[in-house]
Amino acid sequence: MMILPKLGKLPPFFLSCLLLTIIFIVFILCSPNPFNPISKSDLHQTLALPNSTSHGDDDDEILKCDLFKGEWVPDPQGSLYTNWSCSTIPTSKNCFHHGRKDTEFLKWRWKPHQCQLPRFDPKTFLEFVQGKKLGFIGDSVARNHMDSLLCLLSMVETPVDHYKDSEDRKRVWYFPGHDFTLMILWTKFLVDGEERVINGSSSGIFDLHLYKIDKKWTTDLPVLDYIIISDAHWFFRTIYLHNDTGVVGCVYCDHPNVTDFGVGFALRMAFRSALNHINRCRECKARVTLVRTFSPAHFENGTWDTGGRCNRTSPLSEREIKLTSNEWELRSLQMEEIEKANIEGNKKGTKFAALDVTRAMLMRPDGHPGEFWGNKWMNGYNDCVHWCLPGPIDAWNDFLFEVLRRKVT
């Protein structure tokens, strides 16, 4: 039998080699696969860990934080997807396809003053909504939001284009790997609105029935687990307001015998009727209804039809926006209606909350398609209402996931 010398009497060089050999053997035995290289996805997850939706010790800080008071801060990472990697972007929102060259507007993230808002994680979100149905109810800006979410989720699973009506107003996407359904239910006013036809032509004048809900979205309401409801921009038209007895007022009508109640009144009453309907829907199963607050347009030097443009390339600071604007007034009345709906909902087990994007989006005049929207029928007009994809609207999904997490868990 060979007798090993005492370690203390070994030459220093030999002792060092022996210790390194022991450490290496322990590493080999304890590591599941030490020679397997880290994949790009694993590396991305490792680097993205501080921004993931696993909050850990930050839970209390996040839950107490007002997500909607903050500022846009530089974000070198930029968008999680591109206009090339997402094949479902509507052409009118694909700003780079139509010639936009600057990319600085993509390199900003929303930072609440009191906490870090986690970056949207599509994999975690799909696990969160597995087996559920989420519906966006509203106008083309609601569709804009759904398309943003669709692009983000497509990074993890390719959705099935399940349904599209003849006008592409109702659209349904299905993620079979997660049994998740995403849909848009398009409506101009939430309540029933009809455009007057004069001499066989559309007049641009609408009759709005304040207490009659638009069936274009209520028919599918019972199947939804989560609702995101929004509307506003169609109310900036000549509208006659009706109750059960007839015309009670108007918006922009300039009629001597009819009171002009303004956009705010009409919008408030439409939201009140819509939220009341959701609260009183006996066959509905929605766990949470979120109201996305007013998304401001940014026309400068004119309106949409008088040469207004939106060609900025970077955000505004908090001190550069006006919280006394008409946009903020519309946001405030929406917040009031959410609170009223919540009081009623608490009696019945339904939950309402705000996606309060107005402040954040007042600071983003740089994120609209502007002249880069490819509408050949409206050549020379700028789109300063909708948002480029990718673009600042993607931050709405950071808000969405965090607010859903708060209300569901």
Automatic annotation (TrEMBL):
One of its GO terms (cellular component) is membrane. It is a single-pass membrane protein. The keyword Transmembrane applies. Pfam families: PC-Esterase (PF13839), PMR5N (PF14416). It comes from the Eukaryota. GO terms for molecular function: O-acetyltransferase activity. This is Trichome birefringence-like N-terminal domain-containing protein. It is found in: Membrane. Keywords: Membrane, Signal-anchor, Transmembrane, Transmembrane helix. PANTHER family: PROTEIN TRICHOME BIREFRINGENCE-LIKE 9-RELATED, XYLOGLUCAN O-ACETYLTRANSFERASE 2. Residues 64-116 form the Trichome birefringence-like N-terminal domain.
